[in-house]
Amino acid sequence: MGMAIELKSSTKTAFFFQNHQSHIPNTAFPPPSRLRKTAYFSRASFSLRTTGLRTVSAVSERKETPPAQPSAPPVRIVALVGDGSVSPLKRAPWVEVMLHTAQRLKWVDEGFQMLVFTDNLHQSNTIQTLQTELNQADVLVIVAVTKQDSVEWIQANSENIPNIICFDSSPVLVNKLGGSFVHTDTRSDFFGRIPGIFQETNKSVNEVVKTVSEAWRRRNSDDIRFCILVIINAYIKPVQILKNLRAKGFSTLSCMVSNCSPQILNCLLDPGCRKALQCLNNCSPVDQVCNYRCIASYESPTLEAFSLCVLQKHNCIGLDAEVPEKPHVRPMTRFRGEDLCHETAEDLFIGWLGRRDWSWRVVAGQNPAYDQFPCQYQLFYRGKAKGTFWYEPVFQVKTLEGKVVWRRRRYRVKRGKVEGTFFFSVLDNGVVSNEAWTIVDVRDDLSWGLFHYHGAARVAGQAYSGAVLVSPDGEYPAEKERGRLVSALEECGIKEWEMFTVNNSSCRDPPLGIPDGSSLHKMIEVKDG
After folding, report:
1. What share of the chain is helix, strand, coil (3-state, %, to 5)?
2. Residues near 472 by Cβ (< 8 Å), separated by ≥ 6?
3. Is-cis flag, bond preceding 171, omega within 30?
4. Which of 25, 307, 488, 526 could be a cystine partner for 441, CB 3.0 to 4.6 Å?
5. b/e per residue, 13-38, with b = 16+ CB within 10 A?
């Protein structure tokens, strides 16, 4: 059995093994070539309130780069959303969620162009525009469409679309992948619909269905985008950030045995390490919450030695990942009426430490895998050695055996070129993770702050991003601060409804404290309000 191992740091730590005999294909059943006959894509935009139709063309301005190379044809996606339907993401309207998803798809690839329509199809210009786009669509995503007239219209106008996926919609609507219908029955759940279990014999298609279904059930913005990316990767063109979901073959076993036999044997002889491997093998390679819980539940020096050898030293799995560049997030530039300097920016990270036993407590986070664990404490401090700066997150994990345990990591922090930006690195459970952090906003009274990060565990093949809202006591900022907070989140390309609230209700005896000889603030004074 081939394996893939993934490990990430802090509350951004995950780790997985994958059976590559069942994998998501790079390409399979590609759509007919007629879909590529033109590069046209409508740039028209209609008001949702006046026409019942809203579109996102999201065609980016191109910089002139001589000599010009022929651009690849775009991937055209149409999302059709039930008019007035509400999502489970803090009851945000589905049309807003899908419009935001269209923007986030562009961060992955500028050629991923998604238009979003509601199913209010009572005006002729609405129907004509939608028909035009459907005639060119590679993927049709149907969300929360239940009205009979809408269902009948879709059935009559979607015959030539090679990929159709239906979420939370009428059971009459039919799913299609790679030009082939997905047949269902009533024994299980498929794509969030009432009926449906996949009845195909093609194992790779089965894996696509399983992956998309599991991702959709997690009900967050990252996984909604991921569902669409999986379809693109499997049936239209390779998606770069999903390259590590493709099969690596059995050469990994030879690498592991040749280079890491003692570490493998020690792990297999250790009950905890062996449980970790068994646990990880049961996780989907894309379910980072599952993978993280495995590694956090069974952390040990033996498991760390195993991953250090197999992953970090020899990269036996052959994975790779880069720190994401999008969205580009600008740091705050002024604090308490003064231009932000590096020393003040470090002081903002240090926050309340000195007045309290921690710098900040995490109120909420955007990343569904790594920002929602209970009782997250942040410790930032200057090291004993000149010019050193450290970050130690402390967080709580409920293990798979029902125990509540504390975990702690230690990052080295270096200044970026721009004040308010930093580079973090950590060797966590044997794997190096590198992250780029930005201080987006901090109130003058330190009542709350917002930090954004991009990161990657290269040899684990994982790239990620997120943001954390922090405060001195773990409580959400006052309502009067909402406007400023929403603006700060918009700077990160994040909607408020994407944020997960951290459970800070039962946080007894966290393992805090910093090393002797550490120092704190240089530029700012911290006073309790």
Report:
1. 30, 20, 50
2. 351, 352, 356, 360, 361, 446, 447
3. no
4. 488
5. bbbbbbebeebbbbeebbbeeebeee
Residue in the block written with tokens 């009542």: 447
CA distance 53 to 49: 8
Give the DSSP H or E segment for 421: strand 421-428
Q: Mean pLDDT of residues grouped by 10 in the chain (529 residues)?
A: 37 38 34 31 31 37 47 92 96 97 96 95 81 96 95 94 96 92 52 39 75 88 93 92 65 87 95 90 66 84 95 88 93 97 98 97 92 94 96 93 93 97 94 96 97 91 92 96 97 96 94 96 87
Cα separation, 184 vs 213, whole angstroms: 13
Residue with tokens 């300097």, as numbered in its chain: 341
CA distances in angstroms from 29 to 168, 205, 209, listed in the order given: 25, 9, 14
CB-based burial label for 300 (10 Å; 0-12, 13-18, 19+): middle
346, 507 contact by CB (below 8 A)? no
Distance CA 446, CA 337 (A): 14
Provide the token pair at 141.
């995503």
Q: Quickly count: other Cβ atoms within 10 Å of residue 152's Cβ.
A: 12
* Separation between Cα atoms, residue 375 and residue 57, nearest integer Å: 41
Cα 512 from Cα 114, distance rounded (Å): 46
Strand spans (E) along 337-388 = 338-339, 360-365, 377-382
Strand 75-81 and strand 112-118: pairing?
parallel
Closest C-alpha among 432, 387, 397 to residue 411: 432
What the block records as the tokens of 519 is 């120092």
As a whole number of angstroms, the distance between CA 288 and CA 16 comes to 8
Residue 356 φ/ψ region, left for φ over 0, alpha for ψ in the -120 to 50 degree band, beta for the rest: beta
Q: Which of 5, 4, 512 is nearest to 295 (CA)?
A: 5
In our burial notation (b when 16+ CB lie closer than 10 A, e otherwise), range 459-482 reads: bbbbbbbbbbbbbbebeebeeeee
Q: Are 295 and 421 in contact (CB under 8 A)?
A: no
Q: Is 142 left (phi over 0), alpha (psi -120 to 50) or beta?
A: beta
Packing angle of the helix pair 221-235, 203-217 (nearest 10 deg): 170
Q: Which pLDDT score, from 0 to 100, does residue 76 have?
A: 97
The pLDDT assigned to 372 comes to: 82
- What is d(CA 158, CA 465) in angstroms, rounded to the nearest whole number? 35
CB 190 within 8 A of CB 205: no
Residue with tokens 């070129």: 417
Number of other CB atoms surrounding residue 294 within 10 Å: 26
Q: Write the CA distances from 173 to 151, 169, 193, 211, 384, integer angstroms.
A: 7, 7, 9, 20, 64
